[in-house]
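[Meeting: bench + compute handoff]

Bench side (C.D.) handed over the final construct sequence. Compute side (W.E.) agreed to return the predicted structure before the next meeting so the bench team could plan truncations. Sequence as handed over:
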Amino acid sequence: MKYSIKYIASLCIALAFVAALPAQTALNSSYFMEKMPMRTQLNPALKTPNNYVSFPGLSNFYLGVNSNLGLGTFLYPRDNKLVTFLHPDVDANEFLSKLSSDNTLELDLGMDLISFGFWSWGGQNTVNLALKSRTGVYMPKEIFQFLKTGQEATGVTRYDMSNLTATTDNYLELALGHARDINDKLSVGARVKFLLGAAHAEARIDRMDISMSQDEWRIKQSGHLQATSLLELTTDPETGEITDYKMGSNFGLAGFGLGFDLGATYEIIDNLTLSASLTDIGFMRWNNLTRAETDPNKEFVYTGFDNIGAEDDENGDNPFEQKADQLGEDLKAMTKFYKTDTQSVGNSLRTTLRVGAEYCVLDNAISFGLLSTTRFVGYRTYAEGMAAINFRPLSALHLTVNGSVSNMGSSVGAILNLCAQGFNFFIGTDYFATRYSKQFIPINHARANLSLGLNFTFGKKHEI
């Protein structure tokens, strides 16, 4: 059993390193920044006043980590030193109260290769070519509960460790967008996205049931691995058992997909605008995946040792050692993966709903914004509320500061936009952790991101 968890955990770490292929994501903080070219990725109805073209490869670089776990979840000060959550001086309730039923670590990396926008055909048009990479590890609470508390003193102790998952998706996205005014109050926009898959991998324990009592332990498990050429599996030619794996370097065309973004804004009264968008409506299909599965019929049963202290028999074999070896073999048999038929898999994109409201004062020099973000599709539902104050003291200088609360924790952020005539540079973050260790690791929740970009503006200024 520990071997199984170790096997999946090692693959999780490997997938995290694979995620170094860049991707594209925009800061929520930019939603209310009028001159930010990247905000159209949050709502395709949001426009910018000028034409623009990106600095190749640096129009929008993004790095983000999103987790409801932090250093303080696993390390505790005891007697002037730090100990792990497994230390006997750390109370189980203190540790488990910091966990949710689903514990998440997600990594997003992104880069725009080409990006430009121009006013024509009755509105603003955008073209964006980007690399995207998203990697996530999803861990049920009962894994940590098992490690901390183990078997209860009386009765039957049961654990359900199903759906332990590590996954990574890497693809190229070409997005074409158009936004236009229907009248002086209502604006609408849409984007179509063509996706070309580079690499995908998933390691998952579909089911792991553990039952522990004074009389016996029982473990049932089933799981699978699947990967494009990203993951190279070595198999036993006779049994099909996976004997080794390594990360490959063959990033060919591994799949394709199609997505849509839809958005609208409406000024209900002077200076008060409501907006809403649905982004990433669509699918991604991965072709010719190599797949391996465990044997779902294998079951581990342990009823204790009844040969402790036994003498060796006439052949020099010890009954206690024989049973211990057999138990080890039974556990290994449960965690062996066997290669199955190659197959294709279709996944939904991470569809996200955003609803915003902005109220402007002092002739638009300052505005107050509220933004709700809900991601419906994925291994974990994500919901966030953000409040922002947007300062526009000069036409060439815009600043936004914000605070957010979500089911992954709370945070603060800020973004600076230098938008003088001819160029547009921005740098900012949605989530800036307030408590760090000496090694600059977030203590409460590992939530942080950073985005920056350089674009050049030109042409007539349009009313937005």
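W.E. noted at the follow-up: DSSP finds five helices and 24 strands in the chain. C.D. will use this when planning the next construct.
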